Amino acid sequence: MRLLLCTAASNSAAWVDALSRAMPDASIRTWPEDATGMADYALVWKPPSELLAKLGGAKAIFNLGAGVDSLQSMPPSLKAVPLIRLEDAGMAEQMAEYVVHAVLRRYREFDAYAESQHRSEWRPRRRLDKSAFRVGILGMGLLGAAVAAALGLFGFPVDGWSRSRKKIPEVRSFAGSGELAEFLGRCRVLVCLLPLTGETRGMLDRATLSHLSAGSYIVNVSRGALLIDGDLLALIDSGALSGATLDVFRDEPLPPSHAFWHHPRIVVTPHVSAETRIEESVDQIAAKIRRIESGMPVSGVVDRASFY
Ligand code: NDP
Ligand code: OXD
């Protein structure tokens, strides 16, 4: 069996190592060293269109991440080739850590205490009411559900919004555009874990964010292009929103001149909330390849209409 890997040069050797251990009988090639594009299975992260154009004969393409937005413009010749994304593979726990940290930082007002410390000022603040500190999660898939469960352990009230209604203990589920405004109106913190699709691109604009209650806080950990940067900045500067923690950006790396870098109410991290773990991902991919080879169905196949 022939596997073709296209990933960042910096970690290509680690992927090849892990794949050779998990699938000792496979012949593992890397792009662009092997530029033929001949593969039973391609394993890719942000592949060039030149490679995609050659993958029409593959049995499946595995995306080495959870989000498949960078593959939205796949050529029509790949319509019949299943595109399979990573499902959790060690990312849910990392995402829960990151979001819980951001919510606790805001709820326990660590930034305000840092400012007090800067002024050598001993000033305990009245604790915020947790029962009124509702966290709303946009996107209740694998990662959104894990984040909801982690926040629940700290006693935060949690709502979720998705396309279809969910049944998750202790989480009120809102579904579809008709319920978005009500969902937003209840949140104090809005966490974005939606995939970037034709429907979600730019949806976090002034109109949407204006449904949030005064002083709400934003955590974006999905994709930067969901957010209209200028609208967020204007809402924070006017006091309508209290700030944001942002891990993902429209242009990455975030350009040095971008206003987010130095804004006193914005925390910036460089797309690190949940990294792809090579060992877990290879185990998941190898297990799926074994199932496909035995004619069995696999999960994580991207729907080509909704593209997530
Ligand atoms: P899933 O596909 O499991 O979940 C996506 C969720 O979004 C589902 O609940 C889905 O609803 C909902 N959704 C999709 N489209 C819409 C829409 N138009 N309206 C309302 N809800 C919608 O994805 P994951 O949880 O695995 O990952 C989510 C995203 O997180 C990824 O796409 C990626 O962009 C991002 N990510 C970021 C990382 C980082 O390091 N910053 C790391 C990993 C992922 P339904 O269930 O009803 O279909
Ligand atoms: C992903 C990511 O989608 O790393 O997996 O952003």
Can you describe this structure?
The strands form two sheets. Strands 8-7-6-9-10-11-12 form a seven-stranded parallel beta sheet, with helices on both faces. It has helices at 12-22, 49-52, 91-107, 110-118, 142-153, 180-186, 206-209, 229-237, 278-293, and strands at residues 2-6, 27-30, 41-44, 60-63, 83-84, 135-138, 158-162, 171-175, 189-192, 216-220, 241-246, 266-268. The chain is elongated and about 65 Å long. The chain is α/β, with parallel strands linked by helices. It folds into two domains: 2-89 and 276-293, Rossmann fold (3-Layer(aba) Sandwich), CATH 3.40.50; 91-268, Rossmann fold (3-Layer(aba) Sandwich), CATH 3.40.50.720. 29% of the residues lie in helices and 17% in strands. Bound molecules: NADPH dihydro-nicotinamide-adenine-dinucleotide phosphate and oxalic acid. Residues 65-67, 276 line the site of oxalic acid (OXD).
